[in-house]
């Protein structure tokens, strides 16, 4: 079943520095409904230059077109850092695409420079410049969105966004994913692959995807729905930490990508920006969100402990379930 995600127009929120006038704003209500029901939405008029997005798309494709032996030089022993080769699960299930990770400084300091040095020992200033600019823009956009999400929860943004949790214990990082197009010999077999279904562990994810499609979300009722690509938009989804921090007011939804076979004749590219906490950050729901109607759902937890449980329990369950009261 195909579905259009709710579309949130950031231009309707006005001045980035003044959020006090937005209570009762219709777009804010749309945002709240999207966070409660699907945990996914499109953002448009987001302020990120279209030219930069196009440059990032081309740079990513050029990087993935490098010889395999060159890309493998960027494999790091640190989990989720550098290059990852594609993996094929049984009957195509739980497969993973080719990817390149640029984790935050708490995981791998100066990861972009380290990866680039492995790929291009003689330098590639253009790639670094584009990737740095994209990362900076995604960080600013994430900060804007999380403040609007706080406001949609009825919280005092100046109090909670400027707290130590959201100013000194935040980081963001990029992961590029490449899905090759269907080869001639595969067409008759209709060889679909499905990535590992999972929830994202952090605060929120901003996803750039091309026009190929393939992203699916699991609804509250347990049905998988296809997300139709929308030009000049980003897909935003909430992560486990935001579900915990919001005391389950908002939803971290399971999702996956279906690709290959007759459904995907051409290559697919996606670029995910993960807005997340550092490991020492302590996740605790605001007192205003704990009431008789909404009793506390989670024990207080450090993000590092959530990560550990995420890897132990598996990505579908996520790390947050372990901390349910």
Would you kindly provide a written description of the structure presented here, covering whatever features stand out?
It is a single chain. With 325 residues, the chain is an alpha+beta fold. It has one domain: B-lactam Antibiotic, Isopenicillin N Synthase, Chain (Jelly Rolls, Sandwich), CATH 2.60.120.330. Helices cover 30% and strands 22% of the residues. The protein contains ten helices and 15 strands. The strands form three sheets. The chain has an eight-stranded mixed beta sheet. A hairpin with a 5-residue loop joins strand 9 and strand 10. Helix 1 packs across helix 5. The radius of gyration is 20 Å and the shape is globular. The mean pLDDT is 88.
Quick synopsis:
Helix content is 30%, strand content 22%.
At CATH level 2, the architecture is Sandwich
* CATH homologous superfamily annotation: B-lactam Antibiotic, Isopenicillin N Synthase, Chain
Secondary structure: number of strands: 15
Class from helix and strand fractions: alpha+beta
Which CATH class applies here? Mainly Beta
């Amino acid at each position: 079943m195909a579905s259009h995600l709710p579309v949130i127009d950031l231009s309707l929120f006005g001045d980035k520095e003044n959020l006090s006038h937005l209570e009762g704003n219709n777009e804010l209500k749309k945002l709240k409904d999207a966070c409660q029901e699907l945990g996914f939405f499109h953002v448009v008029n987001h302020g990120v230059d279209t030219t930069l997005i196009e440059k990032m798309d081309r740079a990513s494709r050029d990087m993935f077109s490098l010889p395999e032996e060159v890309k493998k030089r960027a494999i790091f022993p640190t989990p989720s850092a550098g290059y990852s080769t594609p993996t094929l699960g049984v009957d195509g299930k739980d497969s993973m695409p080719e990817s390149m990770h640029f984790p935050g400084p708490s995981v791998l300091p100066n990861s972009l420079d380290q990866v680039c040095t492995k790929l291009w020992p003689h330098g590639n200033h253009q790639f670094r410049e584009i990737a740095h600019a994209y990362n900076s823009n995604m960080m600013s956009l994430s900060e804007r969105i999380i403040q609007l999400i706080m406001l949609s929860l009825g919280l005092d943004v100046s109090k909670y966004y400027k707290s130590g949790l959201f100013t000194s214990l935040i980081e963001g990082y990029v992961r590029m994913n490449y899905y090759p197009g269907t080869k001639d010999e595969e067409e008759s077999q209709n060889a679909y692959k499905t990535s590992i279904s999972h929830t994202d562990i952090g605060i929120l994810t901003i996803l750039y995807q091309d026009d190929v499609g393939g992203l699916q979300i699991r609804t509250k009722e347990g049905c998988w729905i296809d997300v139709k690509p929308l030009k000049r938009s980003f897909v935003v989804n909430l992560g486990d930490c935001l579900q915990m921090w919001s005391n389950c007011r908002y939803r971290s939804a399971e999702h996956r990508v279906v690709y290959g076979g007759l459904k995907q004749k051409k290559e697919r590219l996606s670029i995910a920006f993960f807005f997340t906490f550092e490991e020492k950050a302590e996740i605790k729901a605001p007192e205003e969100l704990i009431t008789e109607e909404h009793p506390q759902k989670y024990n207080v937890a450090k993000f590092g402990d959530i990560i550990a449980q995420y890897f132990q329990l598996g990505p579908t369950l996520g790390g947050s379930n372990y901390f349910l009261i």
